[in-house]
Queue: 4 jobs
Job 1
Amino acid sequence: MSEQAQQIIARGPRAAAEAAARAIDADPALESATYSILEEDEDRNVWRIDAFPTTDAEADGLGALLKGFAELKVTREALADADWLAMALSGLPPVRAGRFFVYGLHDRGRTPPNTVNLRIEAGAAFGTGHHGTTVGCLLAYDRLLKSHRFERVLDVGAGTGVLAIAAARTGAKTAVGTDIDPVSVRIARENAKVNAAPARFVHAYGLGHRLVRAHAPYDLVFANILARPLVFLAQDIKRAVRPGGLVILSGLLRTQERFVRAAYLARGFRVRRRIHRDAWATLVLTRG
């Protein structure tokens, strides 16, 4: 951006916030926009959207769209030139999701003795373990591990690599992660090294990378991305997972669950479990 980096914040009732989130998802000009939606104050029914535009045009588009919802109060805040994301993460508490304990450098030395401890540093990548989608994936995976073992695992849209690393740390002989962002791939590789996890990460669009193809079909596929990419990749994910194999999908709002589920049911998948955390949904599906 030509100006200082910005954060756009919109606060208001749940219905208005979710409607605005759907509008962002439906706007082709905002297809790559990064935002989150969460419940800020349950008693007062206050929900919050945080958007982090990367261009002036995206900032103007997000601002105009959000201001179109009269019930939302929209503000813009300038972000310091310092590594604001790392500074914000430094104060986050660790997260427990089933057997998994996700923590940052600031909490080293305070990990429980009976958990799978994953030290994840986010940098500029998504997936600290705090977001409802990442927690939902870890909870779904933890439950599956009680009755399944997965030798080959693929993580589509790996971000920090937390899901592929979790798989590698719990018995997967092959754990491969992909991301369209080369910075995320670098961070995921660094996290794998820190956690002594034999997970491999590649920069790739879609599932056509030679490393991804070399280990297919997979016993389990994670895809914690966004609703539209989940639908777009439905057929590719079907090809990547073995018959009877499992997929864990997230990155979608509860309001988008039916849209995503329909795309996979049409391709022979069956719903095994659903997890809801805040406004977010996680789906566990079996390939028929």
Job 2
Amino acid sequence: MNRICALFQIKYPIVQGGMVWNSGWRLASAVSNAGGLGLIGAGSMYPEVLRTHIARCQKATERPFGVNVPLLYPNIEEIMDIIIEMKVKIVFTSAGNPRLYTQRLKEAGITVVHVVSSVAFALKAEQAGVDAIVAEGFEAGGHNGREETTTLTLIPMVQQAIKCPLIAAGGIATGTGMLATMVLGADGVQLGSRFVASVESSAHQLFKEKVLSVKEGDTTLTLKELAPVRLIKNKFYQDLQELYQQNPTKEELQKLLGRARAKRGMFEGDLVDGELEIGQIAGLISEVKPAAEIVSDLVREYNHAMGHLPEGL
């Protein structure tokens, strides 16, 4: 049996990314009901909001789902308390040291996965005792690694270095992309951008429509001085580039970024001054679909590609 399917007790080795402002209980439960693993994105939720989303997800699906927790976010202790109290079975951690909470979560019977962007961080996560690792190439949307290692390069390097199950992320939105990363050594895949453009995503409709219009070269990795993030090039991005011409300090960058800019862009639909996080693979996304149909498409495309691989050289 596939190692990711066995670990999470799911039908397909397909994980929906826990994306801030996009991944509420509706999306997580829809992906889980379709046979994948849905994740609630705790990074954009106050503790009591997360509690509500977990409770609603538990009512909406009897299948496994998880919560993604960026470790550098505020209220982390309260968030972990809620996750344990509400008997969440799977937690994906990111943006921080996996040693901080892995042991505590595992003692509570929780399966722990950590997201990394390099071989070095993968090794540290495995040493911390995680049950699986997500290796995310810099094609991915949202916050990213400073190494700028592509998925095509990262996956085989991490696969050689670790023994625990490996999930590939970054630049995957199709069944053929899923097959490619699994040929490179991944046991499963995590998709973010493809599920942003889903019916159940909590992203604003204007942001979903903007994702459909993205072409090659319309996104870029920026704000490396604070936390690298891949953005669609809009007015906010252009303002940022103008500021960079002045050799700004971190404080000046932070002032321009301000508070809740990602919420303005992705959740409230401000396409001008909001922060619009999406991956390079958005150039292949042309339609908003129900999450179940996205999962079905991935499986169908994967199986079709498996049966049509070129013969020999």
Job 3
Amino acid sequence: MKFPPPLAQKIAFFVLFVMTLFVVLPVLFVMFLIVKNGIGAISWEFLTAMPKQGMRAGGILPAIVGTFYLVAGAILFALPLGLFAAIYLSEYSQDTWLNRAIRLAIINIAGVPSVVFGLFGFALFVSFFKFGASILSGSLTLGIMILPVIITSSREAIDAVPGAFREVSLSLGATKLQTIRHAVLPHALPGILTGTILGIGRAAGETAPILFTVAAFYLPRLPQSIFDQAMALPYHLYVLSTQVPNVDVKIRYGTAFVLLVIVLLMNLIAITIRSHFRSKKKW
């Protein structure tokens, strides 16, 4: 096996390092601007009070609560359904043209623009099932949007579990279901949580799907049930930036800062759980 000369390796590493900087630096710059311009708006009142004066004053509590409700509802819907679908595709389905077409369709659906999911959710949940513009409609729409990501990552995690684990379990007399439950899923859990992390980030930051299904322009109260409309941070930020005149710049950036922190905290919790289970892997 011939290795590249040291000079070629150094050039390759330098090019990769520069490309990494091109990706990372713009993200860090955007985060710096958000923190710099938004930290001055953060206060206890800003986080816990209702909006006032047409959202030019007060706080963003309804938007924070609405965002948590929508993300939690989307994960509660998408994670079990995506996991069951991944188990079927990996452990039970045969290698037929139909199943190959289903796998290809799942991958392609992941690239559908979010506004299309919003229109789909409006037609199905708001109009057809008569849920109206509500947390339920918004959560189901977001759940469908992140479903392909969870299915794909879960299936890859399940496929990555060594086949010897299954063979040993079956040889000891365990059923197929018991093998999946005790010999496959515990080892695939870190990969499954990776898909969940990606889904949380996308669900928390989307505007188009909730625009059609749940988001309220101005709602200075907390939702009382899953059939109520709700404010959400992404749509609230869009409204402040485009629809409400004479809004202090600090309020706009402060809202963006809170959304950024919430997404990072959700991801941090999921990553911590994933790291805990990954540390228990024996292979």
Job 4
Amino acid sequence: MTSLQRQKIAFALLFLANLLVIVPVGLIVFIIIQKGWPAMTWQFITDIPRQGMRAGGIFPAIVGTIYLVSGAIVFALPVGLLAAIYLSEYAKDNLLTRIIKLAIVNLAGVPSVVYGLFGLVLFVSFCKFGASILSGSLTLGIMILPIIITASREALESVPHVFREVSLSLGASKWQTIRHIVLPNAIPGIITGTILGIGRAAGETAPILFTVAAFYLPRLPSSVFDQVMALPYHLYVISTQVPNVDPKITYGTALVLLILVLFVNLIAIIIRARFRKKKKW
């Protein structure tokens, strides 16, 4: 077998592997759009649930999801970025640092229900926040923290070391070098980690089930200590707990959640693309 034939076989296997990923995802999206689009009306998006969630809209669940994801990012992004800066720029390469990095990577694979129980014990019970937006946002923030730390650290370490050497040789301090040289060049990678975190936070059910989600709450929250409805939990409820729900409402809720996540990701991708254009390397 010639090298050209082996190359063609390798390309064919890679193509099949891509199909195995793309085709099922495409089918899922197609089914959700096909069955959920009839429910996509202005009333469905802006109205409150009625008749035991068998009619009306999902506006409180949309608002609740936005609040929770925003709160999670507000908490996780600064903490994750500062931790990544310390690990990549200040921490020495020793056994303790390597163990910490390994632990962060492993935390990204912990099941979400474990984070939900952790949030229930720490924020709901110990800190006395109760089942609230604050508890849910902090729990989701801790859950996506390993993703943001890992992505941000890799983005910082990908900046050429010569950039740091030139800045330091011109008299800049280490923090000035990080602030004005390293961080601007690492922003695209940091935003990538943020996108992954948003996607996971918006779609999780278990953490908010223990810390914030309300079964039926047809009103908007007035403070961070209120419970809220959220799209993932609302979708679970109308799919399994409420009888005789029109399937188009179930698929419509799934479609709104999908659109919301894609819209937020699109905004982040546009921002990342603009920063990438400014790169000189």
